[in-house]
Amino acid sequence: MEILACRRPVLVSILRNRKFVKRCHTYSHNQQRSMSHIMQRRMDRNPLFKINNPQLSRHFAIMRVLSSVLKLRYLVIGSAVGGGVSVSKKYQEWKDSLPDLSWLEDIFPNNNITNTIQTSLKSILDTLQDIDFDSSKSNEKLDKLKVWLDSHIDQAFKAAEITESNDQSKIVEDMSPIITKAATPNSKDYKQKLEISQQEIIEIQLRYQKELEKLEKENKELRKILLLAKNHKMNMRKVKKSLIDMYSELLDELNDYDSNYQTQDHLPRVIVIGDQSSGKTSVLEMIAQARIFPRGSGEMMTRAPVKVTLSEGPYHVAQFKDSAREFDLTKESELAELRKEVEARMKNSVSHGNSVSNEVISMTVRGPGLQRMVLVDLPGIISSVTQGMAPDTRECIRQMSTAYMSNPNAIILCIQDGSVDAERSNVTDLVSQIDPHGRRTILVLTKVDLAEKNMANAERVNKILSGSLFPMKALGYFAVITGKGNQNDSIDSIKEYEENFFRNSKLFRESIGISSQLTTRNLSMAVSDCFWKMVRETVEQQADSFKATRYNLETEWKNNFPRYLELDRDELFEKARGEVLNEVVNLSLVSAKDWEEQLSAELWNGISHYIIENVYLPAGYSVNQTNSTASFNTMVDIKLKQWAEEQLPRKSINIGWMVLKDMFKTMFEENQNQKLQASDEILETLKMAVIDEALKRHSWEDKALEMLRVIQLNTLEDRCIKDKHNWDQAAQFLTSTLENNLKVTDGLLKEMVGPSNYEKWFYWQSSTAEQTKRNNIKYELENLLHSNPNHSNLLSKDEQITISNNLKQKNGTPCELDDIWQTWYLVYRRHYFKIALENAQNIKKHFYHYQESNGLQNEYYDIEMFWRITRMIKVTANVLRQQITNRELRRLHKELKEVLDEYSQNIEMKCKLLTGRRVTLVEELNKVKQIQEKLEDFIQALNKEK
């Protein structure tokens, strides 16, 4: 009972937590993990549960321990599985990375042989166990052998210290005869085998090159046959438009490109650089397989950069970028012409006073077997400036070479003369400064045949080819021969000489593994591989940079010129061409009336001074002098005929030409003002310059001059006025002319004598002393004319003295006769014009009286003269108008076309007349677009070739 009483609290606790106990016994471990933490704490904190039921408490403790342990199984199992997979994967990768060791099976014995060897060794050991081994005797023999070896080894070392040479034969003699006998044959065999192997490698390489050349020649012939058989232009175009040609055109575009956005040209090209006369031009010729450059003995021949694009083609030809002529490189005559053309272009590119030029001469060389690449031959580096050179030649060459090599993707083909000491080279230091790590430099050693003749150290040459002599680093090192000492040697003979030299050379026979660094063929292949590798790595980046530049330019255009089309200089010029030529068409639409009115007005303005001063006034003055009207007509006839024969036709043509010019400009300006909103102000300067130049060049036809002379003479001879209309016209013309001249004369006289009394009183004006003197003279002369209205235009001596005395009495000072004559000229002129004007106004009503007298009345002489002048002007204006509309406008149209054609070819003139950011921005944008398109086309073609 006591036991039951003691266990009662436990049972009560178990009953209260019956759900928890049931769950612990019936659910799995995974379900027990989800037990409530509150229930666990209640169970752990219940002392009755722990004390009164220790067994059950232990069960729960064990369960908790197991639960914790079981939690780790997932981590352990997962880690084990994952680790096993990783280890398996690593093992497989390590296993795959191991080299193929299957060849060891041929060296090591198989299982059967191994078992046999083990059996034999076991039997030998068994036999040895039966042998009675005397250790004391064996030790004695070993000690003797040790003493003998020590003595001989000491002697060998002493001999080596005394001689200090690498001759191993003396050391071998001091050693055991058995060792000497065993070592000597092996070393000789090794050297002999090494020489044979190297010779075989060189011969195999040369045979391989010959086979390649043979196959290329066969390929060339096959391609020729196919092209000639098909005779299809498209196929020929595809052959010419090769990948390297596309790249060369791209480089030409970039060479002419100048951007404010700092988008530089970083596309690869091979820069051939070397000391003067180091053989760099010969290396390029060997690669191009043709003598394409002029030669000189020790003098500077390369004076400008020459860009040579090598491409493969069926024919061995050369062509300049700006020329359509192809030079056949298989013919010596055309090779000589090509060299002359290169030399001429170099001389033309060098400005006066300089020795070198930065202007690039672009050339393309196509031929079978040529490696595709772009090379730039630069002037050779010189140490000093000789007589005849510009003082800054050395520095100019260095700056030019540095600029080309500074392109981070340019391949530097550094040419070093192998026949001279390496320490004398100038180019290696310059290349080392630009490319210190040698990531894009290839060193080429030339003239190695001369180095062998000069007994050069073979080890020194081999050090150069291994890159251990120079501090300059490079991608590769090559030795070539580019000549035999004669400039007329052919490329084929030099190649054959090069192969024979390297096959028999003592300098390279002892070197191991340098056969791929010999001959121009290997150099060409290596440079081409490096070139195309660099192109593939950089062309995408260059395209991206131009794409960004294009975006910037297009954004600038949209912000600054949103209303205009993107027209470059050429397109703007063509637009201006159309507008200028349209103005000539508009000029032909001017009516005949407008032409003749303008011509008549300008003709009278041009001849009026001569008519009044040289014809009308002298003839009118003669009437007053002779008191005879017949003298007027006589003098007028003589003067008009003489004038019409000598001066009038030429004067009329000049006036007609001026009218045409003024009419053209006036109409052009009026049209521009009417179309101001639609017109393009950037074209105004160009159009006016073209018009001025065309008008300046334009001249009237010579045959029109003689025809006009005859017409004018016939017109001036007829003085009869036939109808009232013509009479009125002549009278009106006479009156207006006299009024204008009277007005002009009054103005001159007023300026001479000063203001009138009215102007002095009301406008507070005053006269100078000279004007006062002239006014007094004028007063005396007017009194003279008032007393004699028909006075002649001449003053007699007595009249001059009388006027002078009168002025002296009034003013107290004498008067100069020149002052009297000057004042008299204007006073009498005004007096005559007043009388003539009164007569002209009266003559207007006398036509019928003139008609009844049949023109026999001489009092109408002045109106007859002006009728003749009026009719002459009218007829001349009509003739000039016909000449302008029928002939001169067409000739002017032709001259405008000629000027426009000349300006269209003159880039400097277009740049001068079409200026502004709008023009430069469009041209730069078009250039960037063109380059980007060429880049994309080239990238697409490059990807297809891959």
Which SSEs are present, and which pair or pack?
Elements: H1 2-16, H2 18-26, H3 29-32, H4 37-45, H5 47-51, H6 54-97, H7 104-107, H8 111-129, H9 135-163, H10 168-174, H11 177-230, H12 233-240, H13 243-255, E1 270-274, H14 280-288, E2 306-312, E3 317-320, E4 326-328, H15 332-349, E5 361-367, E6 373-377, H16 393-405, E7 411-417, H17 427-434, E8 441-446, H18 448-453, H19 458-466, E9 476-479, H20 491-504, H21 506-509, H22 520-560, H23 569-587, H24 592-626, H25 630-646, H26 648-674, H27 684-697, H28 702-717, H29 724-753, H30 757-763, H31 769-787, H32 797-811, H33 817-843, H34 847-852, H35 861-905, H36 907-913, H37 917-945
Parallel strand pairs: 1-6, 1-7, 2-5, 7-8, 8-9
Antiparallel strand pairs: 2-6, 3-4, 3-5
Largest sheet: 9 strands, mixed
Figure out the total of helices.
37
Q: List low-confidence stretches.
A: 1-57, 160-185, 230-240
Secondary structure: helix percent: 55-70%
Q: Kindly provide the radius of gyration, computed on alpha-carbon positions and rounded to a whole number of angstroms.
A: 57 Å
As laid out across the biggest beta sheet, the strand order is 4-3-5-2-6-1-7-8-9
Give the overall silhouette.
elongated
List keywords for this structure.
69% helix, nine-stranded mixed β-sheet, single chain, mainly alpha, 946 residues
Summarize the structure in words.
The protein has 946 residues and is mainly alpha-helical. It is 69% helix and 5% strand. The protein has a 9-stranded mixed sheet, with helices on both faces.
